[in-house]
């Protein structure tokens, strides 16, 4: 589902009955008559994205007004098929009158367009759909002042590693890794065993005790040795997740690849190694810090107020990452503004505003306690932590990040260095071509669904298609296309498809290196024009070539959240199906379980939308590799 407008749009008046009001223009009458019956279906789709269903009518009202204006500009048409030219003309007209009102209106209209796309209601051409989508996305990006560009400073590896080794979060995690040693048994769900939690929590400076259990003395000794012996009453637990910091560290280590959790044991991938100049070790700690930031502070299904609050937090951290400290007074004022704007909207008790503000500011204090920010009269991110912070903000909020150009990478790959097209990309066991680190994100997903992969820069697009299919567990049963430059950029697809867009080129005749040649450049990829799985592919880094084939490619190095199942109705449809499938009391539970059963969901399996297994992805990619 597209991102919701940040503020609830105001109604322009009731729809009324056109038959009783001769002053209603024909285009308005047509839009209301066609879109009014969609209200129930739109509300069901809208609430499927974890949003309040009672907002749906308001957004549909705004979308109806936009559709009516479109019909006037276009001189007719249907409200289930729009063309980019008159839509762009309408947007220009509205922007000239009131830019902010135009952005809010178009954001609501974008929701309606996504509804048509994801529920099969679109009756226009696929090309027009994607062109209109690009117009709306571009406008949201241009009009969104919450998406800063972060320029990461160039910090020498040794300076960064030495600083990270002093960060309390890193020290606590290293102590936990040391406790894990050569491995620890785990439960069937991959969590720590009950009898190990007290000792593990002590390693990270947390006093915890199993409910009803007697003290073993081991935890007291450990806490005393790290200066935490006078801790408050121990936190009672019945599972690892009752000790929040321990649970977050465990998940973050797994996401960063610092531990491998098998069905029976947790095994350390790096041992208790502190950050060092070793690129693999330093990268692992960067990934861990980024994962921790996301797991601890941003990864939750929240109300609109807390979604806005998270964006405030992210914007403050982005500014400080850019060497722009933010005064505490300004932070508190931003928090108060978000609360004031949302208390009435969410029907909350306004007398609780101070408590909401304290809860929001508490996140900054926890970040400071972990050593991830400096907090006095200002909020600051220490320069050696800028790369990790930027990565977390990019992964969580899709901010634009510009990393320093590494020296010694050799010339940028281009046409003059590209092998013959038909042989390109078929040398995974060793290549003289530079390696591309790509981030592939499912557009519109909140929380974000993405994969980070490394491939040879001379990989052909048809093989990149296979990499994406394996990384997201798609089964390649639908049409797809790549596009450069947004709309009206160039499209690439299979030459033998029954349906391709006009002027589409054969994807097997072009390589990545011919389309993207510099870091931060992007490429679009859409799979299944019905469900509309639209991906943004960003070239994050250009790495040295791997002529010895020491690292098998393609390979996945990270990611977040499970990919939606095939034919699940787009992002909104998938969210609704997850809710229905996991809730036995849901009125559509049985029907959805049966439908997803045909798509591969096992009888008693719960759907975990947060699940991601990098090893499983790499196993899939290795299977693909065998056929290359």
Give a quick rundown of the structure.
The chain has 21 helices and 18 strands. It has 628 residues and is an alpha+beta fold.
Per-chain topology:
Blueprint: H1 26-35, H2 39-47, H3 56-74, H4 84-97, H5 99-119, H6 126-142, E1 149-151, H7 157-164, H8 168-180, E2 184-185, H9 194-203, E3 208-210, H10 218-225, E4 235-237, H11 244-255, E5 259-261, E6 265-268, H12 279-298, H13 304-321, E7 326-327, H14 328-343, H15 353-369, E8 374-375, E9 378-380, H16 386-397, E10 400-402, E11 435-442, E12 450-456, H17 461-472, E13 480-484, E14 490-493, E15 505-506, H18 512-515, E16 522-527, E17 533-543, E18 555-560, H19 570-582, H20 589-598, H21 614-626
Parallel strand pairs: 1-10, 3-4, 14-15
Antiparallel strand pairs: 2-6, 5-6, 7-9, 8-9, 11-12, 11-17, 12-18, 13-14, 13-16, 16-17
Helix pairs in contact: 1-3, 3-4, 3-5, 4-5, 5-6, 5-19, 9-10, 11-12, 12-16, 13-14, 13-16, 14-15, 17-21, 19-20
Binned, the helix content reads 40-55%
* Radius of gyration over all CA atoms, rounded: 26 Å
- Rounded mean pLDDT score: 76
Please give the count of helices.
21
| Major β-sheet profile | 8 strands, mixed
Low-confidence stretches: 1-22, 139-146, 219-231, 405-429
Strand order in the sheet with the most strands: 15-14-13-16-17-11-12-18
How far is the first residue's CA from the last residue's CA?
A: 36 Å
Oligomer: single chain
Q: In one word, what is the shape?
A: globular
Strand content: 5-15%
Total strands:
18
Structural class, please?
alpha+beta
């Amino acid at each position: 589902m597209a991102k919701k407008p940040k503020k609830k749009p105001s109604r322009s008046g009731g729809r009324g009955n056109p038959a009783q009001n001769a002053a209603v223009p024909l285009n308005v009458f047509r839009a209301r008559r066609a879109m009014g019956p969609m209200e129930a279906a739109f509300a069901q789709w809208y609430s499927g994205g974890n949003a309040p269903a009672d907002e749906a009518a308001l957004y549909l009202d705004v979308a109806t007004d936009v559709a009516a204006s479109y019909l006037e500009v276009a001189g007719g048409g249907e409200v289930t098929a729009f063309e980019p030219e008159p839509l762009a003309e309408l947007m220009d007209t509205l922007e000239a009158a009131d830019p902010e009102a135009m952005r809010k209106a178009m954001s609501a209209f974008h929701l309606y367009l996504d509804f048509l796309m994801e529920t099969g209601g679109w009756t226009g051409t696929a090309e027009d759909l994607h062109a209109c989508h690009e117009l709306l996305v571009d406008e949201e990006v241009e009009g969104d002042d919450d998406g800063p560009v972060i320029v990461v400073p160039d910090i020498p590896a040794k300076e960064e590693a030495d600083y990270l080794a002093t960060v309390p979060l890193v020290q606590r995690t290293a102590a936990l890794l040391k406790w894990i040693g050569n491995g620890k048994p785990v439960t069937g769900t991959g969590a720590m065993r009950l009898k190990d939690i007290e000792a593990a929590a002590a390693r990270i400076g947390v006093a915890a005790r199993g409910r009803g259990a007697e003290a073993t003395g081991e935890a007291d000794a450990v806490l005393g040795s790290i200066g935490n012996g006078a801790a408050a009453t121990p936190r009672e637990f019945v599972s690892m997740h009752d000790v929040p910091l321990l649970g977050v560290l465990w998940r973050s280590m797994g996401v960063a690849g610092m531990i491998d959790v098998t069905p029976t044991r947790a095994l350390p991938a790096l041992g208790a190694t502190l950050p060092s100049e070793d690129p693999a070790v330093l990268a692992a700690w960067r990934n861990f810090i980024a994962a921790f930031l996301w797991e601890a502070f941003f990864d939750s299904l929240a109300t609109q107020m807390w979604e806005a609050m998270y964006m405030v937090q992210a914007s403050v951290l982005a500014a400080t990452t850019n060497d722009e400290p933010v005064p505490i007074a300004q932070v508190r004022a931003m928090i108060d503004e978000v609360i004031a704007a949302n208390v009435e909207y969410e029907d909350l008790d306004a007398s609780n505003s101070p408590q909401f503000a304290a809860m929001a500011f508490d996140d900054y204090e926890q970040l400071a306690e972990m050593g991830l920010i400096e907090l006095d009269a200002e909020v600051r991110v220490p320069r050696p932590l800028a790369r990790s912070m930027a990565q977390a903000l990019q992964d969580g909020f899709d901010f634009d990040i510009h990393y320093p150009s590494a020296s010694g990478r050799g010339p940028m790959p281009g046409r003059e260095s590209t092998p013959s097209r038909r042989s390109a990309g078929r040398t995974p066991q060793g290549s003289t071509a530079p390696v591309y680190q790509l981030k592939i994100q499912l557009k519109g997903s909140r929380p974000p669904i993405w994969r980070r992969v490394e491939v040879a820069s001379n990989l052909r697009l048809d093989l990149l298609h296979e990499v994406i299919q394996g990384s997201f567990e798609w089964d390649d049963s639908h049409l797809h296309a790549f596009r450069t430059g947004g709309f009206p950029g160039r499209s690439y697809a299979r030459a033998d498809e029954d349906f391709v867009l006009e002027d589409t080129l054969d994807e097997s005749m072009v390589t990545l290196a011919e389309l993207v040649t510099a870091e931060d450049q992007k490429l679009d990829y859409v799979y299944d024009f019905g469900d509309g799985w639209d991906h943004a592919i960003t070239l994050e880094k250009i790495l040295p070539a791997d002529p010895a084939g020491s690292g098998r490619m393609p390979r996945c190095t990270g990611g977040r959240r499970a990919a939606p199942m095939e034919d699940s109705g787009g992002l909104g449809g998938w969210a609704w199906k997850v809710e229905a499938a996991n809730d036995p009391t849901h009125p559509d539970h049985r029907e959805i379980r049966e439908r997803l059963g045909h798509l591969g969901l096992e009888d008693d399996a719960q759907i975990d939308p947060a699940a991601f297994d990098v090893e499983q992805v790499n196993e899939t990619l290795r299977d693909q590799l065998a056929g290359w």
